[in-house]
Amino acid sequence: MLDDASRRRDFPALAGMTYLNTAAEGIPPPAVGRALSQYVADKLLGMDGREPHARVHARARRRAGALLGLAADDVALCSSSSEAFNLAALALAARDGDEVVVNDLDFPAGATPWLQPSCRATVRVWRHRDGRLHADDLARELSARTRLVTVSLVSFYNGFLLDLAATAAVVRRHSPALVAVDVTQALGRIPLDLGGADLIVASTHKWILASHGGAIVGVPPHRQREWTVPAGGWFNLDDPFGPDRFTRVASRPGAAGFAVGMPNYPMAYAVDAALDYLGAIGVAAIDAHARPLVIQCLEGLRALPVELISPPQPAHLAGILAFRHPRAEAIHARLHAAGIHVMHHAGRLRVAIHGYNTAADVERFLAALAAALAEA
Q: Which residues pair with 340 in a beta bridge?
């Protein structure tokens, strides 16, 4: 992943393209494909396959916990970050007068459950300035009625890297609120310190290079009771087949309650293999390799006639850069025709740099972008 030989071996698909779109879709190494094949082989055993399924599922949770700074029992796998946040809304059980703070750099999964009519809380919006979320602005949105503040550690929109410790400190000073953190755009890309988080959520198909159909949910032990999900099912329940199963139900507290129903075992196999692969390399090594590429790309974008919407300071960035241009759609089409993969949405172009990217990738992108801008 970090040199030419391992890149050719582990990511052969990248030989024919310049891929700078991991924030949308990660490119899995062959180990993930082998793991999915192993799932099929185990599934062919019928009920006897349940034993290897359970082993892999438990191992994936252990590996995920190691990245999040949690034990395996404090981690669950569910079907998506959207499911995780909707289950969190059930657990929060907001009442009239409660308040939830979202922000305008967040992905819809973390913000929209609180906007549904079923959520009785008033939603307040922490708005960014100059591409950054400022703690003093957050303080003005908090009160004794605030139940939850939900944030992304790295914004999908412009790559802003939140100071989680400072944010959590502001929340604790001004309210009794819990802090929910989406680490989808950070997990597997940068080392994490999540000491200020009361709920942690991450999708599995981006930077950790696994499959669709999954989310990792982490709940610190001291927050188990606050995140008890009142959902029906069986995997998430205490004694779901007991003699009183038709007269009472008890959800398992904490992360275990987010695993509603039969686990998505194919996803668990993919997550286990992907995290094993990343663990062998080390997230710190990935960040040390990719961070200079982010700075190289940032400096190149500053020299071009585009509107940078990412924070201009490298300290406020992880792996994502974003910019606008009036001809963004045409520029995106030209880049794609040249084999350069970035994301385009509503006039915004987004570049995502991972451990399998190289300085040559950044140089090709900047040269192609300059040419496309000259023709636009």
A: 18
